[in-house]
Amino acid sequence: MKNSIYLFTIISLLLVTFSKSSIASPKANLYQDKSTAFQSIDEIHDLVTQHVKQKIDQKIFEPTIQLRKLSPETRLKPCLGKIQIEDKNLDRVTGRMTISAVCLNPNWRVYVPVTVNGKQPVVISTQGILKKAVIKEEDVKQVLIHYKKIPSGSMVNISKAIGMRAKKSIAPNQVLRIRDLQPPYWVFKNQQVNIITRIGEIEVKTTGTALKNAVVDEQVSIKNNSSKKTIKGIVVAPNTVLVP
Questions:
Q1: What count of Cα atoms within 13 Å lies in the side-chain half-sphere of residue 244?
Q2: CA 187, CA 181: separation in Å to the nearest integer?
Q3: Structural element, H or E, at residue 103
Q4: What is residue 37's three-state secondary structure?
Q5: How many CA atoms does the CB half-sphere of 98 hold within 13 Å?
Q6: Is 0.85 surpassed by the pTM of this model?
Q7: What is the pLDDT of residues 152-195, one digit of tens each?
Q8: Would you say 116 and 52 are in contact if contact means Cβ atoms under 8 Å apart?
Q9: Of 232, 213, 214, which is closest to residue 222 (Cα–Cα)?
Q10: Nearest-angstrom CA–CA distance, 164 and 46
Q11: CB of 175 within 8 A of CB of 186?
Q12: 152 Cβ contact list (under 8 Å, min separation 6)
């Protein structure tokens, strides 16, 4: 009798253990399925970071890229196609911006705020430049400074600064701004110029003397060397004026 009770107890324990195992196993599998049933948030972050790096390449130097990462609790169905990155302001390469990651199948969209810091090139004066002086190669150089310290309208291309004239005196180590510069003179006061006059299809060329300095497309008064009359023309090339 005791042996029967003992055997019954063992069988009962085995049945209970087996029952618990068979119930727990599906739950474990369900949990495992859930862990792999969502889109990788890290993949989205990597795609956004790669897009920003390509966007700022050769425009921002020594950059730092900070993402406001999506919550780890974000649950998105796995994208069955290629995740597309959309950027509504491709010209913006510094400061705060928002990049969206889009999936078409299934349809979802998430927004990733990004902040970019770094340096940009500007042209600065290497020495003092006098008002109306023509800027020479030795007067300027290109340097990198933090983008927040760059004044609006600063010169970036050093080749475009050389040959321009200063509208005002410029101190050493000062960022050159477009509004502080003027185009070089193409016609100089009291210097000889070529005068072109068109009558129908006929072009007549004479010479004259400029009565003031002038830049391209500017109207200037000139004295015709032959007739001694003062006429007005438009500067169209160095030392060349077109009389309509």
A1: 5
A2: 17
A3: strand 95-104
A4: coil
A5: 5
A6: no
A7: 999 999 999 999 999 999 999 999 999 999 988 899 899 999 99
A8: yes
A9: 232
A10: 45
A11: no
A12: 177
